[in-house]
Each structure stands twice: as C-alpha cells, then as structure tokens.
Design brief:
mainly alpha
Amino acid sequence: MAIWTVYLVAAGICFVTAVGLFQTLMRAYSFDMALVLGLVPTAATFLAAIMLLEGTRQRRRWAFWPALVVLVAIVPSNIVSLIDYSLNPNLPAAGFASEQDVASRGASPLRALLKPTEAGFWGNRMKTILATLVVLLIVALPTPILWRLRSKGVLR
C-alpha cells in the first residue's frame, strides 16, 4: 500500500509539472535566458518525479533520492509563498460588495469574483490556505515512506 501511495503521488507530480511546463512554454513570447532559467526548477522536478515513478515501480533503494529532490524543490518555496499569502492578503481591487451589490448582481458569477463579500473573501482565503497545506503534505509523503521502506529492507 505504501508503494502505491508513493507511486500515485509521483504520478500526480509528473502530471502537474508537465502541465506547468506546457503552460509556461505556451505563454512565452520569446525564448530568452530568463525563460530557460525559470524552467530549470520545474524541469528538474519533472525529471525527479519520473525517476521516482520508475524507482518506486522497481522497488529500488535509490528511489529515496528523487523523492528528496522533489521535496526540496517544491516544499520550501511553497511554504514561503504560503506565509507571504497569509501575512499579505491580496484584497480585491474593486473592494468588498455591500448588501445592495449582492442583491443587485443576481446570478452574475463575474461580479461575484470581482467584488466578493468580505465574509466570502476571507472564507475562500482560508480554504486556499488549507488546500495548499494539504497539497504540501501530500508532496512530502514519499520521502518518509521511502525512508521507512528502505530501512525495513523492502526496497532492493
């Protein structure tokens, strides 16, 4: 079961990083050095996730090292971003909606996005923070699982 958990997490990381690489390349106006340097961490994470998939599939001892690379590549920068997001909220540019705004907008989802109520804004913010913490926990799972399996001798 632990191997399958690591395998599924690695497959998810492969998918997300591949989509991120594709989106970055599609949005690029020109291929300059800044774009290439910006893609290096994502590409390294993608390659480490592929190695993690293969090492987990073969139940190899070296699968721990790609898991550690994925952990180091993803978790620290996202924790810093999460702390920044928690301390410095991006308030809506249009301000918060009043009771009259809520009654007059009807079923327009665009207006609800551009001018949310204060309670809705802070509720969505907390959901975003909790979802990010759950994702970081999931990304961190393969390292301790593989460390434990490696020390028990399950991996060859």
